[in-house]
TrEMBL record, chains A, B:
<protein>
    <submittedName>
        <fullName>DJ-1/PfpI family protein</fullName>
    </submittedName>
</protein>
<dbReference type="GO" id="GO:0006355">
    <property type="term" value="P:regulation of DNA-templated transcription"/>
</dbReference>
<feature type="domain" description="DJ-1/PfpI">
    <location>
        <begin position="12"/>
        <end position="176"/>
    </location>
</feature>
<dbReference type="InterPro" id="IPR052158">
    <property type="entry name" value="INH-QAR"/>
</dbReference>
<dbReference type="InterPro" id="IPR029062">
    <property type="entry name" value="Class_I_gatase-like"/>
</dbReference>
<dbReference type="InterPro" id="IPR002818">
    <property type="entry name" value="DJ-1/PfpI"/>
</dbReference>
<dbReference type="Pfam" id="PF01965">
    <property type="entry name" value="DJ-1_PfpI"/>
</dbReference>
């Protein structure tokens, strides 16, 4: 208690685990750290099993600011996705236990890309509408969720975003929800988010899904080789 | 030399320095690492003064994969931006010396956001068209460049991008330049880059520039306090 303040800062916790896709994490982290700079009612933290450096699916290594134990009751949680390492994280009981405990008090449980598969493995998508990377969207049904093809999907306190770059859109939506539209616009100017995809919008009629289908099944089998029951539930929806 | 191959992989080097804005780095790194996965002719590396972890302008810490000395002749270089720490990096002689040496053989010298100020401090923007974060665009003139208000600006081998999130657009442009449009589209699907900014496009007629002008001068003075000559050159263009 400092200066008579009784309100605590609301903690927005970003999860790190080995092998994640760093853009899933850093897009929303940059956006919500800008919110925290503009509004001292919020702080961002990066949580992991330890504060040691872990690898990602790029040559960059990253390190959390806090351990799971140091952040037992965050206001909001964001889980990033990835490929094989994310499927492995679906069976990380320490991560899952932390998510279940956090969800008891958190006002927002969110994910980017295949991070929603981890939320689902923790039992947090049961009966919820949710999304993930377009290539794996249908396997959400194996986790009790109803898959939805949108940039982000809000179902009560659970908000899931589509693949990788969708985390930036999700995060700007969260800023508006937490602090209003003007603050969200200020953050958008701060990160100069005025996208000009050089190849234009994605042409979903020509998505390379057919080419990638064998890769998808290979990824699932590789990530969940030691968890045949879970693998079976997901493969049943491919 | 393996299997009679004589061509070496082309190395795309992403620069890390303390205090950077991680989205400037990770957006393009994710895109070009996807290229490297699709085309073994390329590899991405993250370079820094050491491979130790450094802080960013968020609670995330990051660590390079290689030291500057280990990557003396990259095919392409990308320098991310930031706020006060980036201005300090403009006077980091070891970083500037590495950039000047790399520029002698590199086919592409690129930057995101205020990373272009570091390229400029190394003398690499002399006589070039360039851009940076919209708030600091005009100070590029103090580094010998002609400021241009575009998402990214290509002037021969030097390509500079606008603020923070513009690095994703720059990187997809680079993929198309290096590997063609179909590969760029495949990468775009992989990161599901189909932006839907929740607050719409930025309304440049209502940019908060006036409100932020004192912050801009404060940032310049704080970052370059020990380098009055350089500070003077930049302030002359504010």
């Amino acid at each position: 208690m400092v200066g008579g303040m009784t309100d605590e800062q609301k903690t927005l916790a970003f999860v790190v685990y080995p092998g994640l896709t760093p853009l899933d994490l850093v897009g929303p982290l940059q956006v919500l750290s800008a919110l925290a700079q503009m509004d001292p009612g919020y702080r961002t933290v990066v949580v992991g099993a330890s504060t040691d450096t872990v690898g990602t699916d790029t040559p960059l290594r990253v390190a959390p600011s806090h351990t799971f134990e140091e952040v037992p009751a965050p206001y909001a949680v964001l889980v990033p996705g990835g490929t094989v390492p994310t499927l492995r994280a679906m069976a990380d009981e320490r991560l899952l236990a932390w998510l279940r405990t956090a969800a008891e008090s958190a006002q927002l449980m969110t994910s980017v890309c295949t991070g929603s598969l981890i939320l689902g493995a923790a039992g947090l998508l049961e009966g919820k509408q949710a999304t993930t990377h377009w290539m794996l969207r249908d396997v959400l049904a194996g986790l009790g969720a109803t898959p939805v093809a949108r940039r982000w999907v809000e179902d009560g306190s659970v908000i899931t975003a589509a693949g990788v770059s969708a985390g930036i859109d999700l995060a700007l939506h969260l800023v508006e929800r937490l602090a209003g539209r003007q603050v969200a616009t200020n953050v958008q100017f701060a990160i100069e988010y005025d996208p000009e995809p050089p190849q234009g919008a994605l042409d979903w009629a020509n998505q390379p899904y057919g080419d990638l289908k064998p890769l998808r099944e290979h990824t699932l089998r590789q990530g969940l080789a030691e968890h045949p029951e879970l693998l079976g539930r997901l493969l049943a929806h491919t």
